[in-house]
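#random but structural
TW: two for the price of one
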Amino acid sequence: MAAGVRVLPASPNWYSSRCSDASSDGRLFGFAARYRVCLLDVGAAAAAPAFYGELIGHTDRISGFAFCHCPGQSNLCASSSDDGSIKIWDTEALAAVGEYSLHQNAISALHWSPLVKDLIVSGDEKGVIVCYWHNRSDSQQFFPEPRTIFCLTCSPHHENLVAIGYKDGMVVIIDISRKREVIHRLRGHDDEIHCLAWCPVPGEERLLAWQDELQVVPSEDSKVPNGELTQDTTTKKGCYLASGSKDQTIRIWSCTRGRSITTLKLPPTKRRGGAIDPAVKERIWLTVHWPSGRSTEIVSSCFGGELLLWDLTQSGKRKWTLLGSSEGQNHSRIVFNLCSVKRQDKELLFSISMDRDVKCWDLSTLNCSWTLPSLGGFVYSLAFSPVDTGCLAIGVGDSMIRVWNTLSMNNIYDVKTFWQSIKSKVTALSWHPTKEGCLAFGTDDGKVGILDTFSSSAKNKPPQISSTYHKKTVYALAWGPPTPPLSSGEGEQPSVTLYSCAGEGTVFQHNPWNLNGEANDINKVIRDTNSIKHKLPARTEVSWKPDGKLLALGNEDGSIEIFQAPNLKLLCTIQQHHKLINAIRWHHEHGSQPELSYLIASGSINATIYVHNLKSVAESASESPLIITEPFRTLAGHTAKITSLSWSPHHEGRLVSACYDGTAQVWDVMKEEPLCNYRGHQGRLLSVQWSPVDSDSVYTGADDFSVHKWHISKQEHTRPPQGKKSIELEKKRSMQPKVKTKKKKKPIGKSPTKQDLSDAVNGDESTKEMLLEESGVSDHEGEKEAQEAELSDKVSVTVSKDTSSSAYNFSSFSLPKPFVIQKAIPVKKDPAKEKPTLDASLKKRKPRSILPFSTFMDHRSKDELHQDCLRLATHLKTKDNNEDVSPDLKDCIHLGLFTDRASLHKMIDVEGKHHLENGHPELFQQLMLWKGDMKGVLQAAAERGELTDQLVAISPMVGYQAWVWTVEAFVKQLCFQEQYVKAASHLLSIHKVYEAVELLKVNHFYREAIVIAKARLRPEDPILKDLYTSWAALLEKDGHYSMAAKCYLGASSPYDAVKVLSRKGDVTSLKTAAEVAQISGEEELSASLSFRCAQDLLLSRNWVGAQEVLQQHKTLFGQRLVFCLNELLCKCLSERNPCDRKSPVPPCYHSWELNREASFLDMVIEVWQNVLGMDTTEQATCAREQLRSIEHPVSTSNTHPKQVLFHISHDLTLAALSYRTAVWDEAVKSILGAVTRSYDAGNFTLMQEICSIVLPEGCDNLRRKLDSTNSQSMDACRSLEGFVAYRILYDLWWNPPKGSLVSQKADLDPVLCPSEQTALEKSYVSSQSSEETADQTAAEMDENLHNTTAVRVCETESDSRTSSGNSVDRQSKLDGCKVLLSEEIAALQNTQRDIAEVQQILADMIRQHQQQRNSLQENTNGSTHESNLQQSSEAESDKPCSDSSQTNCEVKEPITLPELTKQLLKAKQKLAEFPDNLKVFPFPDVLECCLVLLHVGSQCPPELCEQALDLLRKHGSANTYKKAGRRFLT
């Protein structure tokens, strides 16, 4: 900062627990002001402080500031900001030496540890504490409480202790060296903690005043929270802590005992010089300070800004003393911060307050040593009083006027503040030229008033306010001689009146004697005097020549007009500037060269200052006004807009200018030479005044909230910065962040962002002085607390100076981006000369012009436009004289706009043609509509397929028929464009419902068609049903069955719906279909679907679900019995063979109680009776009849095992029903059916299981019950016995007695090949689990049984199955096998085998023949000889030829067809000879049984063996048997 600068600085920030501090050496006092820290040199004891400098770098409001109080580091300090960072500064260099951003939330408290020289402790609004050691850049975080921190203070005696105060009144002391950091939670306050102060003296000596309090509760005294502490340890170790809270109390806490030992309640102090709104009384900030070295005295703030010194040794009323005994020493608003510094013999205390004063107190006398006023807004205006020399009025954006007596000897900051009735930013000031203390002011909201600053009661006397308000910001005020009507009025008139100029472009003349009367707009006088008809420009500046003879008005268009008093005759217009005029100043009159008093200096938004000499104009006798276009002098050098000018009263032709480039410049006007440039401000300059008493001093005000007084002789620069400095300034400014739009409501009474929001939007072409938001609130009269809390959200919009001009031109905010606040309207930099540009920031595409040709023609060069004017004038003249139209206009189509209708029609035609050529038919159509030729347009558009909604909408104006025709044409066009739905809507608009529906239907928009048809047609209309069925058919084709079903139901044909639902065939679909069928009364269909569904459920082993489905229908009772039996059978089988492989779906069984003692069929019948309610024989008979009607196909090895099981269940159900009704012969047949079905399916194991489950005791019981005369039932019984014996036979072979195992093994056929063995093994194992998996190897197994003689695998596996080990039992069982060795059946089976063999050969031949024919077709040119050969070779190779090891197997000749037929016939005759009863029922293969018996070997009775061998010899002619019986027969 340059030497000798005197500054009125920016105001300290409000609502912060510590944003000011004094350095430990007592030299500097610093406080946070907005985004900067202001440093004052307070080294001189009683003298006022000097401005030391500023710490600049934060980009948001500073919330905390503290010096380092460790010895040798008094130049270091730290600040925290809402930008999230904490910076460490060196005050010697005024520069940051460190920075860190460790908080995630707004930082609300900061302190530099007084004991650890590099430790900074900070806390934020969410409760996080950060300790940062800057020498080692190390940090640690603590989170003692999840509450908002308001203040924190490090202990001056224990380096690890920190006291923290919270928003809700809690105080916590933590130890930062420990993990569990909290030492005490001090509870007592019930509102925000504003400040904490440690006692400067360690120890807790008891003070007299507290003795009684401690003696009352001795018991409590002994129960110390931290264990038993004796009296002297308490005294030594502890330390007192004071806290001030919003609850209006101060508490002193004992650190060792963790509780409050005394509470001081604020007294209701008697306010002196009251005049403060009673509402303010509620507002309180209670800060406390414990001066060093005084353990018994505390200083605190109080309600209205008073400071109290508390004596802790006294009790009762005498406890406190008020600081500042004499009038006006105290603060007038609440005090936020206190800090002190020891100076030799005395201690000084510094305080900052909401009244924007910084005060210094002497604690020994309790008097105020000095007061430094500060400013809470932009400095818009400076004015020196012409009467009271050295009296400087300052207009500030914090809604207050300061009057600074700059000549005061005893107090260099002798400042009075006026705030009453102002309530808005003060933007203009002007002193009365002769009356002492009469100051006129203008404000941001258009108010003009006059203030008396001189009278003794001035403090309380509100200003007079003019009843005429401006609509916009007041820009300029000037006192000048009265002009009409005031000058010509009757009676006595004032010698001077007040002129005000404001943003809407008007100048009012106010009568200072009658401000209640209406002010006069001087434009009226100007019009009358100069007979002006045209529009007057918007005024932006008003300035009277000091002698009152000439008035200069600056205009928005850059012109300056000079008028002569008193009637305001226009003398001349200066056309020099081309942008809005910001400042006009006349040269003073007291120089040695009187002609200089005619010099007028002016500055505009352009950076150049012009000086004109108006002597000749004033003296000329010319009648008409002159126009001046040449300047007398030009002062160039600034790089931004000029905001203010001031002539030196001490020199001749010396001028100082203030500029947006951030500097003030002194010029020698006559030499056009820059003399000196001042760059001390941190923002844009807004006002400047040359000191009236010191020729070397200049005062400047800026948007950095400060006024500087500086000396010309001490500046190093002579000219304004070119570029670089301006760039730096821009940078500085861009660091200030945008005003946040996020409205975060602060609690009232604690809004840190109050007075220091940046003034942020700014001016541009259309604003003279930007009036921006500062947030210093003048909070004096009647201001609401809420207003203060909301302030951060206020935003100002820059206003234009011009309202009278129609182009309310926001044209160009030439500001760096960060300055634009949310509502400002940024616009293009330089508007075109012709007309104001549109707002560029909106980036909207300009709509295409509908008259481009004439618009273009009207934007040609000036010369051509001038030609047009001449032509039009000529045309007008010839028209007046009724002459023919001048031939010129024939070529100038575009002038049709300004002449008659025929020409206009021509112009429209040309424009229309133009649009069509450029492919904009819609614009052509619009033009034709304007012209009124609509029919042609519609026809043309229809032909070209260019009809639009708009054209159709307009078409009714041509008539009903035309409209209908247009709509139909549009529908065709839409169909062509495949917009069928839209086309249908248009058809509806002309009531063509059927056509609309048909159109949609044809194009498969069924849904839409149905909606229209249902809404518009009769319910019985056949079209509706047709729509549903067509749509359903389409949906069915695409596989959307459910949707198709809905359509059929919509068309009231439930049968079709059921059919389509069941097509998917899954369980849920079938179930739904069955239910729909039942609801619709289709009983039979429903039953069949339910049965299908139940079968599907059976496949997934869900018997419960299946029974639920079946029970809906009485007709399916029989099936319910089958399903029930199937479930019990499956249960039995799975219990007998616990399956190794778990099936993917677990079976879903019923939880029926089963009688395990009874036989299987009895158990089943019992369940039927108990669960399904089959009680009577009639029911059983009925069910049997129902089931007998169902035929199931014969099972083969390809039938699915579950299917086989189901069919078996069906047979067994019939058997059980026959049992129940005692029809035994039927029962036998049914059981036989079940057994043979499993045998046919090739599932031997299943057959075994069924025999053992149904006939555990064999067939004897059954045989007894049969009617022996009925031969058929006897045959059936024999067949059944055969199968039972067949099972037993295999059982015996597979489970030999234990002892014979070895001998048996020795007998094994050595020829047995491993592959056969494994095949058998496989077949056996797989057949175990045959209910789950299809038994692929069943056929193989049969084969293997014939071919092999032993199966090693199963010998041990089936030990468990042997019914009994003893040989006696085995013998009786073997005897039972005699039934198998039936000669006649063996013969029958042999014949059947022969027939099958012949049939197989026949089938092979037929196949061969087909292949031959195919190959012939493929190559018709191939020789037949070849194919014959091929045929014979194929026949040979296809012949089933026996093993080559058999000697008797020679290659046979191919058999001819007649021979085969003969063989077949012979075999069939032989078959016919057998009695019928043999052929009816199946029987096990007799030869196979012979082979097995022979394999059983030693245990087999010899007569049986003989019989078996006989049979084999007799009938075993087939190759298979020959091969298998080889070892027995040879």
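TW: number two ↓
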Amino acid sequence: MSYAAYKLMHAPTGIDNCASGFITHSPADFAPRILSVQTTEDIDSVWPTTPAPGVGPIPNLIVTAANVLEVYTVRVSENDATSNNKDSVQPQRGGLMAGLSGASLELVCSYRLHGNVESVGVLSSGAEDRTSGRRRDSIILTFRDAKISILEFDDSVYGLRTRSMHCFEGPQWLHLKKGRESFARGPFIKADPLGRCAGVLVYGLQMIMLKAAEAGGLVGDDGGSSGGGSVSARIQSSYMISLRDLDVKHVKDFIFVHGYIEPVLVILHEKELTWAGRLPYKHHSCVISALSISTSLKQHPLIWSAINLPHDAYKLLAVPSPIGGVLVICANTIHYHSQSASCILALNNYAVPMDSSQEMSRSSFSVELDAANATWLSNDVAMLSTKSGELLLLTLVHDGRIVQKLDLSKSKASVLTSGITTIGSSFFFLGSRLGDSLLVQFHCGAGSSMGAKEEVGDIEGDLPSTKRLRRSSSDALQDMANDDEISLYGSELNNAQSSQKTFSFTVRDSLINVGPLKDFSYGLRMNTDQNATGVAKQSNYELVCCSGHGKNGSLCVLQRSIRPEIITQESIPGCKGLWTVYHKSSRNQAEHSKTATEDEEYHAYLIISLESRTMVLQTVSNLEEVTENVDYFVQGSTIYVGNLFGRRRVIQVYSRGARILDGAFMTQDLTFRATNSEAALTVSSVSIADPYVLLMMTDGSIQLLVGDPSSCTMSINNLAAFQTTNRTISACTLYHDRGTEPWLRKTSTDAWLLTGVSEPVEGPDGTPPDQGDIYCVICYENGTLEIYDVPNFCCVFSVESFVSGRPFIGDNLFQESSNESQKYQNMKVVELAMHRWHGENSRPFLFGILTDGTILCYHAYMYEGSETASKSQPVNGQSSSSPGTSRLKNLRFSRVSLDTYTREDMSTETHFPRITMFKNIGGCPGFFLSGSRSAWFMKFRERIRIHPQLCDGPIIAFTVLHNMYCNHGFIYVTSQGTLKICQLPSLLSYDNHWPVQKIPLKATPHQVTYFAEKNLYPLIVSVPVSKPITQVLSTLVDQESGHQIEHDTSNLDGTYIIEEFEVRILEPESSGGPWQTKGTIHMQTSENALTVRVVTLTNTTTREKETLLAIGTAYVQGEDVAARGRALLFSVESSTENSQAKVTEVYSKEMKGAISALASIQGYLLVASGPKVILHKWTGSELNGVAFFDAPPLYVVSLNIVKNFILIGDVHKSIYFLSWKENGSQLTLLAKDFGSLDCFATEFLIDGSTLSLMVSDDQKNVQIFYYAPKVSESWKGQKLLSRAEFHVGAHVTKFLRLQMLPASSTGPAASVKTNRFALVFGTLDGSIGCIAPLDELTFRRLQSLQKKLVDAVPHVAGLNPRSFRQFHSNGKAHRPGPDSIVDCELLCYYDMLPFENQHEIANQIGTTRAQIISNLNDLALGTSFL
């Protein structure tokens, strides 16, 4: 393995930073809604359901997870009965509060950056009241070591664009580091609340001031480009303040405060450092200093300061206007300081005043506040989230602007947060790295009677039971009852102030997080298929991951590919297509529509098209064949079947005609004839949008069948407009823009004329008024895409060279056309689909499949350009011949990356339609892509999630089925001719990069392993238990020497929380329910289980192999007691009749040192105990040492074994490579890495006959070493040589070695090595990736492509992918190793480039586009694990 590729398979999900701001819209965009409420104030009491007056403008939510940046919009649904039926797929969560029935997060844009975001700030647009104002906010991101990027939302591309970049690193800024190399934290940003400036602290002591541009200034010239006149806040210039000159050292936090004319910066810093051991001599060492910042004069005078703050102060909170001032949060106290007043609140017994003169009020309960996060719910109530996940409300009791005292009250428990932000006036977001992040709505009431409902349920994100209830709308009421207990109330204070505010909360939405992945194991799924081979076999496996911490601890079961739950299967050879249709008979239509929504209606017939005949089956309950009794055309194969006229009729299209049926009876028969000759034409593809049917013939012409809803009959329209043109059509589809306000209508030139008039105009012929508009999307052979309105067939939108896959497309009338469309004679669109799924704000998607298997996916958005008006005049003169149509000139499409989908090799044989849209399968909307690499494309939050389905090989036909026995399921036919009726596994959440099932443990999981013989998962968990301090101290005594340690016994009346460890043996539930604990092994007091492994040992007395469970532990008893540990062996007998497995201890042995790693090697047990590695043999009753290795590992983090080779990773001393020789019974050190490295995980990488050693470290790098005793640099083989190094950007905690799958390519390169393995790894950010070996030719090609892409692609936030992937040594001396890993994160941009650019880059590096695509495809196929 000389060369490798790094590939991210599951993006990070643990949220590090969150912020809120008006990014995609300005506050004024909400004004009309608020004004309409204010006019009805006098009758407000009569109408309690007016659109919530408390909501007001809602800003966007910005979250970052490692290197992922996402912007969300909060979509609010008001409480009115009509919206409920429309969205019945997913009923709202959380019941009714403050006039809102629900709220959800909708994705605006998501980016994977080339750098980890250190902190996020929002530069506000400066509106004081934040309810009006036309300007938008900007996002400020900071990256290590000192990079700052300012991003703003650009309407024309519906995404973020970099506005300015500020970099303070590199040779000319070296003096800023003052000689230091490593810094505890990266740059972090705070912005002035009025948006006048922002401050970034870099290198610990340098404050960079970013000065914002004045609202009126130069920005006006640029303002036209962002359309609609709403300009984002911008940074004009930056300068630096050296804090050392101000005698400020050891900065802990800083913040801008409210209520001053100039920006005022308050810095919390420590004069002289102290620590817990020196507190009797030096305490209260922190200081806050307030500087008035004048950005124009670059002066910063000190205006006030406060001294003698506790040494453990760590956070500042700026109190909002009109009170002003700052809160200092310490571990045991909270201080309020302003220029005129100060007060202190003590939180527990450890709070000591500086001297006797300070008076401290104490809170009514005891709490520790270290590592808390906080945000403001109103201008005098702050919410704190503690390290144990409790929410506390801190009220400032004030008189005018003078704060008299602080009051703290307990609220509810929730997730352990990494950040909180308030979104508008009625939502807050709890961002979490350790659990799911939550969007919570809060409502402030003034009554105090609510205070009694204190002990109602907590705000927890993972509600697995209620989550399942959201499947069907009939359970919606039940679900509200369940979720309603969550609404909670802040407790009432015991003083006489009954005006104390009470808050009620309800969870509205949650974002799934699978991180931090501490460990995972690779096991079989429950419904495995024993006969599967190749890629399909991967669907038998799943990853079981330890994730989360404390009460957010859970097991995450991740499955990359979907394996459906099969209800029945049947063999049907020669199947070509499947369709299910509804049948509403007109008699019972009235009462039918009342009882069930459209969504719950059962299918009536299933039509199966075979090669020479058609079968019809009845589907309401069981499937029964009724082919003989119906008037369907059954003598030949069918092209398409679908419903018309509001499900009252069915149309069946076959190659030479069509039939209209009412249930089983035919009402009309049509045959298709060509206009010029008498020969009958044959149909090749069909698209239906009620009441129109679009047919595409084999000769490339199209015909439209027009329905008359009153008589339910069809007539043929030959579309004379298309008969004359010589352009051949390659694909076409109809698009139905549903709803009372069709989405595309808003984008037309005269949208303002159409709004409000459209409803009454539409329905004279009996159609309901909300039918919406119908459009026809056509793609020609030359690559042009045009949209026509139906039935007039006037062109309303056209794009040249659609096939080239440009990142943005708009109406070509107003764009200079590129004359390069001749290049792609071979590239054409073979299938088109355009669809808009349900949802008030959903926007249409456009999909095109090209001849080479590329799928283009576009998402529509609206952009009103101001500069287009001048160009449009002459063009409009020509096209206005057809009155009544207006161009959709504000319609734009942006391309969506589908980099997780592996394209298939398209064959030249006849193409069959591959896209099947569905509205609700198992509660999810989306479409299914059939073919040789079939996949599910599901739409959540306006984002497409792609989940492959590999378990059946190629899939020929697919359709939806909903009946009594198959609730919202589906049917598909495999290429082997098997018809399967299935449902989606209901326990998985699909709104994640991979489908995931979370199993809450309510404890911290540490390590998991898979017991393959018994299909069990032994798992180390630790549960926090609170014990009396006296009992804890008595365990810190060395029992052997018997020394009693003298302790000051004055304040030992408290409790102390210690973690108690146990090993749980879990069994996956076959029915898919919650996992069952089959047995528990408890550790002794103060004994920590460190490792659990399933080992195979050779019993030396009986010569038989035994499979045992081995556990390594350590006693943690403080630094006065010598470290000891135990090695435990257990046998596990799984008994089927009772629920518990029989776990018996076979052997236990106490050793010196902590036993941190175990492994079995050729029947022996290798134990790493402290600084020794000892090999034991197993006699059946005890372990006896055979050999040992005494090199200086301090503490072994990981052990890996291949054959007789051993790889040891040490906590500080890098890696050791040993071998074991049985004949001389000795462990020999072959080589080691002489550098110092703090290892996280190690593993062997096998590529053919080459063995390499992989290690990940605490600086988020991975390195590959190899053993080469013949090379002179290796000092006669003592030293391991570096083969590659790479910066992953996340802490890799576990590697898993999996055999690569055979790539499909046939050719000279088909002689691929068979035992080539890739390493799948998990990280603490919740990302999963793999490192896969490459052969040299592919590597050189991809590496030169990568170098080109660094410059060819505009990178978000201006980050450089090359510097991000450099080895980070954190100031230690490091010799750079070879650069032999390519970065697929950068290579995946290649597919998103327009084709002309792809060809150009391929030419520059001397290869072809097809060659590059095939290399990337082979890599994706070879690593399509799980």
